[in-house]
Amino acid sequence: MKIVILGSGSFAGHIAYYHFLKKGHNVLGINRSSKKNKNLWPTAIVNTFNGFWLIANIVDDVQVIIEEVNNFCPEIIIDFMGQGMVAPSWENPSLWYDTNVVKKTQLLESFAKLPKLKQYIRASTPEVYGSSLEYIQPDASFNPSTPYAVSHAAIDFHIRNLGRQYSFPFVLARYSNFYGPGQQLYRVIPKAILCCINKKSFILDGAGKSFRSFIYADDILQSLDLIIESEVVQVEFGFSTSEEISIYDLVELIYNIADVDFNSSVVIGPERLGKDKTYRLDCTTSIKILNWKPQVSLSNGLNMTYSWIASNRESFSSLSWDYIHQN
């Protein structure tokens, strides 16, 4: 099967890229940067599987992407591409709208004409719904609270309309927070682990009062396999776990795993602008249609992620742990 992974250099995109290569599929990865450094991914995978990889930026190279995808003629497109950070979206909202809405719309216009496309699977975000203490059904009203979330809500609306008017074979998959070996070091879990093992202070935004659920890499891949196997289209899914945890308790749990004193190492910082308190995705549709359930507990997932970082401590400690913006 021919599969395109848009945003193949993102954490989820990268694990999906190698996952489908390992399963024997013909895979084209498209990303604004090259494949990850071998230290950021298991070398056995990097050295064994070699799919196609196009370096292209959706902002500047949208026509190049369209041409390459047309030539490749995929049956499946899995889309992780776009501006993915929340807080920086306030600094230049127009970039988020141009990337995640305008340029993405151009891609979608071309994808709708692909002759063999069976499914376009977009990894969306629960942030389109805004903060909610109730469990959120996939068809719940959108209530975004940041430019990042507005851009995702807008393109999700557009995709729904493509399905309604042109029978576009979309699947919208909204996930709780990703984590696992291979994740970018500036994300909360890898960064907290690095601060632990290097005895450096960790800044806890807003005292860590927001609540999140975290979904491990293997459970992301399981969801993608099940979506493709089901051949469903024009369906929206929520993927989450029942292990909701405050960011404060999450970081404290990481420090306990590392056997480092939490109170002497964590610094309370200001809250991010527009940060939602919690999301609670209703996963009933995922369970009924796909028989999907998360297999990796938070405790086991954190321990596996900790082991990955600890085994690469020397190389990771010399890298930047901060987010560096790219257009």
Structure description:
The two termini are 32 Å apart. The chain has two domains: 202 residues, NAD(P)-binding Rossmann-like Domain (Rossmann fold, 3-Layer(aba) Sandwich), CATH 3.40.50; 87 residues, Alpha-Beta Complex (UDP-galactose 4-epimerase, domain 1), CATH 3.90.25.10. The chain is an alpha/beta fold and 327 residues long. The protein is 40% helix and 17% strand. It is built from eleven helices and 13 strands. A seven-stranded parallel β-sheet has the order 3-2-1-4-5-6-11, sandwiched between helices. A two-stranded parallel ribbon has the order 7-10. Helix 4 runs parallel beside helix 5.
Order of helices and strands: EHEHEHEHEHEEHEEEHEEHEHHH
**Top-tier CATH class of the largest domain:** Alpha Beta
What structural category characterises the helix and strand content?
A: alpha/beta
Number of strands: 13
Helix content: 25-40%
The CATH homologous superfamily of the largest domain is named NAD(P)-binding Rossmann-like Domain
Unreliable parts: none
Kindly list the characteristics that best describe this protein.
13 strands; alpha/beta; two-stranded parallel ribbon; 327 residues; UDP-galactose 4-epimerase, domain 1; 2 domains; Rossmann fold; seven-stranded parallel β-sheet; 40% helix
Question: What's this model, at a glance?
Answer:
The chain is of the alpha/beta class. It has helices spanning 11-22, 43-48, 62-72, 93-111, 147-166, 188-197, 217-230, 247-258, 284-290, 298-311, 313-317, and strands spanning 2-6, 26-31, 52-55, 76-79, 119-124, 170-175, 177-179, 202-205, 211-212, 214-216, 235-239, 245-246, 266-269. A seven-stranded parallel β-sheet has the order 3-2-1-4-5-6-11, with helices on both faces. Strands 7-10 form a two-stranded parallel ribbon. A two-stranded parallel ribbon has the order 8-13.
